[in-house]
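S.,

Sequence below, as promised.
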Amino acid sequence: MIRKKVCASSDTSALLDLSSAPRPLLGESPGAMPNGDPYAEHLDEEYELEDDDDDPIYLHSEDDRFRPESKGNLFRDRKNKVDFVLVWEEKMRPHKKRKVKYAYKEMDQDVSESRWERTRRENEYWRKKFLKNLRKVGLLMEKEETVSERKTIHYLKLSAPWDVLVYFAEELCIRAPLQAQPNPDRNTSDEFLKKLYIPNPMYERVPNKPMDYYTCAFRKSKLDRFLGSDDHSSYFTNTQRHRIVYEILARTLYGKRKHAEIGIDRLLNEGVYAAAFPLHEGPSEMPEYEVAVEKLNPRQILHHYWARWGCWYKYQPLDHIREYFGEKIAIYFAWLGFYTAWLLPAAAVGSVVFISGLVTMGSNTPAKEICDSGGKYLMCPLCDTCDTWNISEICPMAKVGYLFDHPGTVFFSIFMSFWAVAFLEYWKRKNASLAHHWDCMDFQEEEERPRPEFAAMAPKMEQNPITGVKEPYFPKRDRLSRIVTGSMVIIIMLCVVMIFLVSVIMYRGIVSMMMYHTGNSILMTQAGNIANISSTVVNLILILLMSQVYTSLADKLTKWEMHRTQTLHEDAFTFKVFVFQFVNFYSSPFYVAFFKGRFVGYPGHYGKLFGMRNEDCGPGGCLIELAQQLFIIMVGKQIVSNIQEFVIPKVKAWRQKRKLAKVRGTQISQEPKRWEEDYELIECEGLFEEYLEMVLQFGFITIFVAAFPLAPLFALLNNWVEIRLDAQKFVCEYRRPVAERAQDIGVWFFILEALAQLSVIVNAFLIAFTSDFLPRLLYKYEYDNNLHGYVNFTLSYSPQSYVSNNHTMCRYKAFRDETGSHTLFYWKLLAIRLGFIIAFEHAVFFSLRCIDWMVPDIPESVEVKMKRERYLAKQALADNQDVLLTVSPGSGSPGQCARFF
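The prediction came back faster than expected:
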């Protein structure tokens, strides 16, 4: 059955006149009090008192059976909104089992029961103190229960009355509307297509679009100058109400101040509460009956116009996302959509470059010479126990290698270098427009509270120099020593990655030798490809396993380092994970691009590692092997991630529903309430994994793009799926997160900038040292413009010392003479390669600085709106506004008065 209790706050008189008497509220708002506040001492003394037998939190109504059922996110009085829900579960007392034979077993059972009883009483005591302090702040409460034989689930609904909202809105500097203006569709592509009179299939009108306002920081004393202030029920948006109530929950004391027993986050970590969340605004499914689209709830609008798979080609309703989930989540989806849109030209150019290579593949003179050589070029053995072979055997691979190594790839790498920086520059402009449009341009993170884990584990208390309040403190020297120790662990883990890389290299060599010794002509010809593809798949599996292990380890290390605030904790965790993932994902492509085939040696003087000859590039060159690696690692990672994002939330939600279904028991046929349905959803996991996945993808499509022109196309296809998967999770599968403010994507932008700069350097080295572009260019200039004889020119003869040891005279790919020394052409080529790197980097970086200078970070139209908003704010908040705007006859204009003063 479901029992219901109702609570009406009996101590809200302190909130009736906040402007004249704010101190009582501060005194009764634990966690927000300055040092030395008498109310703080009062609460700490109160904590020492014994609790009364009566429950001080709830007023029980005797006529609950006559109350109408609450519909929507309202209390049963149908007036007060449900702003937040606290959930806790209570298991029934364990049943005493029959007496067993041995007395010590009975003693163990009694000890376990006493522990359970002690934990239950402690949690109940903390809840009572916490809720008692919430009532003093002025929050309204109403309780629901779902009872079964084994467990009771308590749902406490919280509502903030008008006076509380007004007080904390001013304290949190919430933006309030001054003047309404039309909310335009800010889509450059839509405006461009309209000018050309071309229909835009991506545009779709989304109902109930939020208004756009000029705003300023809220002031209660100027309440009458804000739009809509006469309607208390709808003046504050639901996300603003959630943010205010969460702020109260995060500040409220539940235990002793000297032990930093403050806030809902720590109560959740201690297991006192099972969950705390704002409610979704109704179901996400469309109603079975016909209804006007304007009557749909915000969640249904987001599901129908955004989260459905059929909306994959539509614009995202960013204003609706922001209104429902807050700025932090909206900016993530805005960035993801902007990034995906910019992938369109990159994918188009990359596809054209790949197709041009495919079309001109037959005109490749070196490949023709290889295919027509027959037995002309006898190549040296590829291993110590292998036989010689003819270069004509690699004819197919020589043709395919041209797809990834032709002049078009050089152009594409230059194009992508400009693309990456232009994308980041124009994102800054887009971000500035959104930040102003969403009233977070001037947002600065307020003085953050200590993290719950930090507060629980900090060894001492120190006074905060800013707030004057004593807070948990951890010595900086101890933290520094822990950070250094954690860095050693990171280095060890990176060494483990290198060990796995060497193991994959040895695996590749062993597989190649096995293929050569089969005697099968097909296997012998394709030995390099088989070894490379299979080793890359093995490498991908190791990468994914190491990612899971290290992410868990980095989380533990970051917690152990004891960072005070959540921002510092997240930055340290992001740095650790990104550094490891960068090495984890990119070490193998870096090896193939810059190290494989560089230390092979020559016949008679081969370089060796653990008794095996160092790897040489395959028949088609290192670029084709690099392309294979990038395709398998990048696309394989995307497929695995999408499967995980699709399956894991559904499995978690199924387990949660199954667990709650057992509690509801016979009531399963009854329609669940909104809070019950939301509790069945899974907790929002944040945006860290989403950003990390996209940043790693950005690295793949920029750093190694010279070897894989199709990378932007695969990234584009993945992102179309990614946006819908993420939208489905937030709208349908996650509990509604607390709306957080943010003005940009944070530290991820600096990581993207670093990757963009690195991509210029890496692509320059790829073209210079890994590609055959410069050797062919120099050969054209010095010998033959049509590359006739190029294959023979690149093949050296084995040294006489090698032949004298009972070996056959053979050829190998290098610019060496008969003694094994480098030829003059090699040194000329080396000088040209180094000169190309310097010229490429300077030209690209200079052009990028010009782009940075020419493209302002803030659009001119946004600057005008910002000035207009500041002017309106000044007028609205000025106490002498009437004097300034009133000019008596004959006194001149206001401008003349201003000049006089």
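The chain has a mean pLDDT of 79.

Coffee later?
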